[in-house]
Specification:
The protein is of the alpha/beta class. It has helices at residues 2-16, 19-26, 30-44, 60-84, 100-107, 111-117, 169-175, 198-201, 225-233, 243-252, 281-297; strands spanning 49-51, 56-58, 92-98, 121-127, 141-145, 154-161, 163-167, 189-192, 203-207, 210-214, 221-222, 238-242, 256-258, 267-273. It has eleven helices and 14 strands. A five-stranded mixed beta sheet has the order 4-3-5-14-6. It has a five-stranded mixed beta sheet with strand order 11-8-12-7-13. α1 packs across α2 (19-26) and α1 (2-16) crosses α4.
Length: 298
C-alpha cells in the first residue's frame, strides 16, 4: 500500500508541478507528500526530482519512472473498474475540459442534470480555449469543436457543428455586403487570435465543390470567442462563428449571415478521450450521456 501511495504522489507532483498542488489534489498536507517522495527515492536509491525554490524538474531516472508509474496506475484503475462494473454505480472524480464559450452555454447547464442522475461521480469542469494535454494534465475527457489533429487520441462525434459568416445589419448597411469569398479582402474581419486561431489558417468555404481556406484580416482579433461575438453585435465587422453561438441572434435579427452559398460542410463536436481501452465506467457513462443530450439539442 505504501508503495502505491508513494507512486501516486510522485505522479501527482510530477504532473501538477509542485508538492502543494499534489497535496491539494490528494487532500493531505505538502509535508506528507514530501515524506512520501523522500521515502520513494530512498527505497529506489536514485533521485527522481530536483526541487528548486520556484520549480521542480525530473531527473532522467524520474522521467523513466513517471512514464512507467502512469502506465501502472492506469492499468490498476482500469482493472479495478472492470471488476467492479457489475456491482456498483459509476463513481469517482471526472475531469472534463471544454471551450469556454461552448462550455458555458451548452455544457455547464447540463452538468447538474448529470450530477442528479449519477450522484457518486464528482465532475470537475475546466473551461478555456487552449488545447489541453489530456494525458499530461490528467483529464478524463475533453469536448472539442472542429477537425481532430492528434491521431493518438480517441474522438467520439457528439453532434455536427455548422459555421457561418455573420455581421450586424448596421455594419452591412455602412460597408456593404460581400458577394464572393474574395470580397472578404475588402471588409473588416474579426479574427480569433492565439495558438491555433483562424487568423493564420483562414476561414473555410466551399468553392466549386472544394473546401478552401480563405485568409482574412482586420484591425481586431481576440483569443476569446465571446469577445468576437460582442464585437460582431456592435457592428465592428464580420466574424466566422458557430451556429450554436449565433442562432438566437439570427432569429432576432441582431445578426445576419452572408456568403451562405459558399458555406463549408459542417465539422463536428467531439468527446476526446486519451484511450478507448479500459475506460473507467464514469467516463463511458458521461460520454454516452453527452451524446444523447446533444442529439436532442443540436
Amino acid at each position: 500500500m505504501d508503495r502505491f501511495k508513494q507512486m501516486s504522489s510522485f505522479v501527482a507532483v510530477a504532473t501538477l508541478g509542485s508538492l502543494s498542488a499534489a497535496a491539494r489534489d490528494e487532500g493531505v498536507t505538502p509535508a506528507i507528500i514530501g515524506r512520501r517522495i523522500d521515502a520513494l527515492e530512498a527505497r529506489l536509491g536514485v533521485k527522481l526530482l530536483v526541487r528548486a525554490t520556484r520549480r521542480l524538474s525530473l531527473t532522467a531516472e524520474g522521467e523513466t519512472f513517471l512514464a512507467e508509474s502512469q502506465r501502472i496506475l492506469r492499468d490498476l484503475e482500469a482493472t479495478e473498474g472492470m471488476v467492479a462494473q457489475g456491482s456498483r454505480r459509476p463513481s469517482g472524480r471526472l475531469r472534463v475540459s471544454a471551450p469556454a464559450g461552448f462550455g458555458r452555454r451548452h455544457l455547464a447547464p447540463l452538468l447538474p442534470i448529470f450530477a442528479r442522475a449519477w450522484p457518486d461521480v464528482h465532475v470537475a469542469l475546466e473551461l478555456n480555449d487552449r488545447l489541453v494535454d489530456l494525458v499530461e494534465e490528467r483529464f478524463d475527457c475533453a469536448v472539442r469543436i472542429g477537425d481532430l489533429v492528434d491521431s493518438s487520441l480517441i474522438g467520439i462525434r457528439l453532434a455536427d457543428n455548422q459555421r457561418v459568416v455573420v455581421a450586424a445589419p448596421a455594419y452591412l448597411s455602412r460597408r456593404g455586403c460581400p458577394r464572393t469569398v474574395a470580397d472578404l479582402a475588402h471588409v473588416d474581419c474579426l479574427t480569433f487570435g492565439g495558438a491555433g486561431g483562424n487568423q493564420s489558417r483562414g476561414w473555410l468555404f466551399s468553392v466549386k465543390g472544394q473546401t478552401v481556406a480563405q485568409r482574412v484580416s482586420g484591425a481586431l482579433e481576440c483569443s476569446d470567442g465571446s469577445v468576437l461575438h460582442e464585437w460582431t453585435l456592435q457592428g465592428l465587422g464580420l466574424s466566422w462563428r458557430s451556429m450554436w453561438e449565433v442562432r438566437d441572434d439570427l432569429a432576432q435579427g441582431r445578426l445576419v449571415t452572408v456568403l451562405d452559398e459558399f458555406r463549408a460542410p459542417p465539422n463536428g463536436i467531439f468527446a476526446i478521450l486519451p484511450e478507448r481501452k479500459h475506460l473507467p465506467l464514469r467516463t463511458r457513462v458521461f460520454v454516452d450521456w453527452l451524446r444523447d443530450s446533444f442529439a436532442r439539442d443540436f
